[in-house]
Write a structure and sequence with these properties.
alpha+beta; 18% strand; globular
Length: 100
Amino acid sequence: MFRRDLIPLLLDRSMTLSEIAREVRETPKDVIDALSHLAKSSKHAEYDLVVESAECRKCGFEFAKDKLSRPGKCPKCKGTWIYEPRFTVKIRGETSSTSP
């Protein structure tokens, strides 16, 4: 199933919406639907969907993390040069700390 394929694809790997759509050969709209479902279901699973929000390349404005698609233009400077949001799946409870 398509949604289950997203977890291993994004596990510790950051990708944009268009990169994911190309990789799984689906439309960006289908990927957005799957990502929003993945975000909701991650509350009851052993993984978390981490979203790096979209950012304006011109002025640095950061969009809300719940905006999964690339915005059309920046509300601050009206620029259209915008980085896409990036998505990663992290296993809950993994820590990189070393024990003494």
